[in-house]
């Protein structure tokens, strides 16, 4: 399905599951819908990082469920005694949940239960338009011991979703061979030819890139790399402190979810990555560069890989609800980018990356890491294990159903 048709279906008021492979523009379509929709919206995602891409909040925070995966009627009534939460549920007309693959079935049912309590008890989600977005081939719910994806929820069947399956790849549109490899991973159909092509990138340097962002599986590995690399630079260190405002609990949630750092340390020569989109300024979430100098205001000047110089300004992250700002953070839209985790890379587009898949531990991790990069030649593969290129057999069968429903 084309993006334009998906947007029309979203604007029709139907409940929609927006899906497609990595790089097909799902977040772009969601942001377009948010801009054009006239209804009162709840903009959420299953993870804080994904929520910041939409200027929203986590579904756990928005709905008030927090870490709970089950609440009885008495607990829900106590929850809804919070006036701000009750009004939020009462007024919402459209609810967006991005990165639906990382929300488990129990919590999905719980959101349905709460909305029914506040609005119409006889309609799915109380009659609220539900828009869920994501790709189940990507990362599943964390600590999802019973493998209960949201599409297994009772509420999923009741919602009668119209499936919009985006087909056209925009991230890898210039590398058809790479798209074929990624599609083979999605179908658990990796053959010797495709695997050989991928292995050709093992220990292979990326032309035009002397220092690559490293995608690793574990936080302990990436923190160590970034700290070591910054300490090696013999230049004056500049320190940038985050400024925040709003209710403490919401601010703390935004701090935890946002890729911006409370204390950002930079030096001339540091490799950095932009973590926010700013088309007017000439950078996007995932744009890579090097700190080449600091301007008169003390802000870093970043030289992108294409040679463009960006005089970086302070950016703002906001959690909004019904047009009201609940929390705000101000910080430079940068982070050290010698290394980041695969989980934190989900949703990003990278020009090039060094990828270590030797410690992958979850279905979809290899697919997510590889599909962040625009071309096969932009990958330096440093390790791989048996789990890395596997996707869930259950998801493969479910994906066939989603494709069929989208075609219908």
Protein model, in words:
The protein has 408 residues and is of the alpha/beta class. It has 2 domains: 3-170, P-loop containing nucleotide triphosphate hydrolases (Rossmann fold), CATH 3.40.50.300; 176-384, no CATH class. 33% of the residues lie in helices and 24% in strands. It has 15 helices and 20 strands. A 6-stranded parallel sheet has the order 3-2-4-5-1-6. Strand 15 (315-321) and strand 16 form a beta hairpin. Helix 1 packs parallel to helix 2. The model has no long low-confidence stretch (mean pLDDT 88).
Short description:
The protein is of the alpha/beta class and 408 residues long.
Percent range of helical residues? 25-40%
Terminal-residue CA separation: 11 Å
Average pLDDT score: 88
Q: Specify the number of helices.
A: 15
**Mind summarizing the main beta sheet?**
6 strands, parallel
Shape: globular
What topology, given as strand order, has the largest sheet? 3-2-4-5-1-6
Please report the total strand number as a whole number. Answer: 20
Strand content: 15-25%
Domain module tally: 2
The value of Rg in angstroms is 21 Å
**SSE-based structural type:** alpha/beta
Low-confidence stretches: none
Topology (SSEs and partners):
Layout: H1 3-11, E1 16-20, H2 26-36, E2 41-45, H3 48-52, E3 57-58, H4 59-63, H5 73-79, H6 83-91, E4 94-98, H7 105-118, E5 129-133, H8 154-159, E6 162-166, H9 176-186, H10 192-199, E7 213-216, H11 219-232, E8 237-241, E9 243-246, H12 248-257, E10 263-267, E11 271-274, E12 288-294, E13 300-304, E14 309-311, E15 315-321, E16 324-331, E17 334-336, E18 339-341, H13 342-345, E19 353-357, H14 365-371, E20 379-384, H15 393-407
Parallel strand pairs: 1-5, 1-6, 2-3, 2-4, 4-5, 7-18, 7-19, 19-20
Antiparallel strand pairs: 8-10, 9-16, 11-12, 11-17, 12-13, 13-14, 15-16
